[in-house]
């Protein structure tokens, strides 16, 4: 026996029910897509925020440390600043200032020793000279290279006769440390690179000589 034919109202009701199911299914799919995307975006934003906040906090801590004398730094005031083409005998190695060559060493990274009288002229212009003993471990040299490679007014080179494994020098200031990871290096650089002790702030650290 054939099933009775559905009325127009019944067919309309069935069609509406199917359409409602389809809309509900689309909403569920959209929620899964957009909800999952929102969770992913939120996770990315949270991760980026964490990194940025961490970097900002680190910069602020470095600035705070640089606002006061760096622990262990040595102060050498009242140094002469005459230009000379003659050799100069400095009282310490690396030199922290004094008479120096008429031309400066270009700031940058050097793998062999630089002329000290020219490097002192760079200090006069506000450079910080990061130096290390030639026997320093390669990973330590790489650490110093990473520091120097991101900043201007910074000179990196080995110094044959220095006593400390790593030394940071600015005009009239010096800090000696045992390794390149010492946090005081960053504070010293921040405080004294073009710092208040600079005899000629703003003078260039390019256009001189290479090494």
Let me know the number of strands: 6
Kindly report how far apart the N and C termini lie. 106 Å
- The helix-strand sequence is HEEHEHEEEH
Shape: rod-shaped
Strand order of the main beta sheet, please? Answer: 1-6-5-3-4-2
Largest sheet: 6 strands, mixed
Structural class, from helix and strand content?
alpha/beta
Keywords:
single chain; 6-stranded mixed beta sheet; 211 residues; alpha/beta
What's the arrangement of secondary structure elements?
Elements: H1 8-66, E1 74-75, E2 108-109, H2 116-124, E3 128-132, H3 138-148, E4 154-158, E5 166-170, E6 173-177, H4 184-192
Parallel strand pairs: 2-4, 3-4
Antiparallel strand pairs: 1-6, 3-5, 5-6
Helix pairs in contact: 1-4
Nutshell version of this structure?
It contains 4 helices and 6 strands.
Structure commentary:
The structure is a single chain. The protein is of the alpha/beta class. The protein is 42% helix and 11% strand. It has 4 helices and 6 strands; from the N terminus they run H-E-E-H-E-H-E-E-E-H. The protein has helices at residues 8-66, 116-124, 138-148, 184-192, and strands at residues 74-75, 108-109, 128-132, 154-158, 166-170, 173-177. A 6-stranded mixed sheet has the order 1-6-5-3-4-2. Helix 1 crosses helix 4 (184-192). The longest helix is centred in the first third of the chain and has 59 residues, at 8-66. It is rod-shaped, with a radius of gyration of 33 Å. The protein starts with 7 loop residues before the first helix and ends in a 19-residue tail after the last helix.
